[in-house]
Amino acid sequence: MADPAIVVADLTYTYGALRAVDGVSFTVGRGEIVGLLGPNGAGKTTTVKMLTGQLRPASGRASVLGFDTVRETEQIHRRIGVSFESTNLYEQMSAQENLELFARLFDVRGFDARALLARVGLAGRERERAANYSKGMKQRLMVARSLVNTPQMLFLDEPTAGLDPTSAASIRDLIRAERERGATVFLTTHDMAEADELCDRVAFMNQGRIAALDTPLALKRQHGRRALKARVAVGERLEEREIALDEAGTAEAVRALFADEQVVTVHSEEASLAEVFISVTGRRLEQ
Amino acid sequence: MNLRVIGTLAAKDARLYFRNRFFALVTAMGLVFYVAVFWVMPSVVEETLIIGLSGPDAAVAELVGQGSDGLRFEAASSPQALRAGVEDGAFLAGVLLHDTPGAPVAAVFAASTPEESRQAVSTLLTTLLGALSGTPPAVVLAAEVLGPDLAGRQVPPRDRLRPMLALLIVMVETMGLATLISQEREAGTLRALLVTPVRRRELFTAKALAGTALALGQAALFMALVGGLASQPLPVLVALALGALMVTGIAFVLATLGRDMLSVMAWSVVVLVVLTIPAYGVLFPGSVSGWVQLVPSYYLVSAVDLASNFGLGFGALWDELAVLAAVDVAALALGMLALQRRAL
After folding, report:
1. pLDDT over 90 for what percent of chain B?
2. Is the CB of A91 inside 8 Å of chain B's CB atoms?
3. Integer-rounded Cα radius of gyration of chain B
4. For residue B154, which of B45, B147, B265, B315 is within the disulfide window of CB 3.0 to 4.6 Å?
5. Pairing status of strand A6-15 against strand A59-64
6. Does residue A243 sit in helix, strand or coil?
7. How high is the ipTM of this complex?
8. Chain A residue whose CA is closest to B19
9. Which residues numbered 165-224 in A keep a CB inside 8 Å of some CB on B?
10. Whole-model pTM?
11. CB spacing of A107 vs B197 below 8 angstroms
12. Residue B190: closest C-alpha in chain A
């Protein structure tokens, strides 16, 4: 990558004797959406905290947008937007006041809070206190807050967790729009389907280490099993046939299926990212 | 440091303080209550000792004529009226005079009159009656007053109470600020701020500014409403500003002591009680021991008392103000260190 947005080299963080992040290395290109996937306690949030300058690594180095995460946090903070997993809004302030506060801190001139709130589907609710918002509305407000400075890099921690499908879809649209604008998005999530749908690349994190990092398609090809599933009529009954794809005899087996049997239905089956995760780490995401 | 960022954060803190219904109510009600308490307290000091007399008119009239600024003799209509006056506190003591020369003179005291007062009044009457009957005192005393003579300028109870009320106002802000910081820590908003261009030192400075301004503003308003800024406004305001800074530092420490808002408030009450102790020394002189000088609020109460009640200026207050300034530096440094380690 010519001009990476994130460069992480042998990054380590320890909580006492526990190595929460254990020698992690990876690179994220500009304009990419990269998902960091893993179960609770895998080290995702600690990694993001180090990348955003909230934690100082025990060893290793990282840079974001070309700035060192330990020595140049101020430059990084001016250029990034962060949305946290747990809600951390000023609940006694209105949505508009929340955004305007952060716009002033970023010194954004001519900031239009109403327009940004409309982008996240909160038009007409600008003057309501955040305390009166539903969980989904708060989550959308948090994402909006991460956008007040038109960041070059977005760190989104579980941005759609616990949201209804409509709210989740609107946030995913927003993330895509940010990528279109040129922003890089670093996403941590439990939601494999979301990662599959949104991310250019995904990293599987397990026990403080990156177990795999590639495009969702490549990971599925590399670690998943593809198969052709057919239902055939045998007398009065229906029977199932399965032919593994990507094997030497696949073509012959498929030909034989259609030549020798009475095929009723046929469909292909791909491995999901969740299955790939289990295959790579030996753990389920919810573990 | 970025002044725009500090101003934005301080304004946000002040706004959040008044949006907390509890503290907004406590602040408003507290101010009204303290001002009301001040104005209902006695505004004068009754220092004249009144001794009742009963007996022959001529002897009574002669003694009544002997009264002075601090001592007054009043005639009672009968011995029964004299006794009743002593019992209900109208007279410090009563004297029953007789027509017969050389007959014993009876002094009457209430049961609650301290022994020292009985002795003093007895000695006074013996000397005075002796002089009137032709026996001059053996020794003549010449009184000398060291320093400005404050006789007749005694501080009324409500003026004594004023420094204590100002201290209470300032300290309630301690609870408010500590709770506000604790709420921000619990809600995670401090984390949100620290991934923006806000630096930690700007965050601390803004909180110190907001806390001090809130405490000073209310205490100054209170002092203005109760006449505490009449004689030495600048020294009083400087003392209050230093006191407000001190409680801000204390609030920083308190904010890190508890795990949640309730425990922070519990700690605040404990500290509030300790910090109030020196004020009793002003309210009831002689009621507290010398160790209260170890309590930093002593210097705030003392400076406000001396400036507002005795008209003393910077020249006489420099030691109190210097100690307060030193305490401020220590409290703020300790508070910021605690916040850095525990709250962020």
Report:
1. 20
2. yes
3. 28
4. B45
5. antiparallel
6. strand
7. 0.84
8. A92
9. none
10. 0.77
11. yes
12. A88
- To the nearest whole Å, the CA of A14 is away from the closest chain B CA by 17
| Chain A residues inside the 8 Å CB shell of B206 | none
Q: Are B310 and B282 in contact (CB under 8 A)?
A: no
User: B242, B324 in Cβ contact below 8 A?
Assistant: yes
Torsion of CA A82, A86, A90, A92, to 10 degrees: 160
Q: What share of chain B is helix, strand, coil (3-state, %, to 5)?
A: 65, 5, 25
**Rounded distance between C-alpha atoms, residue A224 and residue B263, angstroms:** 53
pLDDT the model gives residue A286: 58
> Cβ(B255)–Cβ(B339) under 8 Å?
yes
Instruction: Give SS3 for A209.
Output: strand
Say how many Å lie between the first and final Cα of chain B, rounded.
19
Contacts of A93 in chain B (CB under 8 A): 12, 15-16, 19
Which tokens belong to A116?
């940004």
Q: Which residues contact A19 (CB under 8 A, 6 or more apart)?
A: A12, A13, A208
Residue B149 is predicted with a pLDDT of 62
Tell if the CB–CB gap between B4 and A107 is shorter than 8 Å.
yes
- Res. A274 pLDDT band, cuts 50 70 90: confident
pLDDT digits (tens, 9 = 90+) for B246-278: 999 988 888 888 777 788 888 888 888 888 888
Residue for token pair 């220092």: B47
Residue type, B86: V
pLDDT tens sequence across A201-224: 999 998 899 988 999 888 888 877
Beta carbons of A93 and B15 less than 8 Å apart? yes
pLDDT for the residue numbered B12: 93
Residue B66 tokens, joined: 């002997």
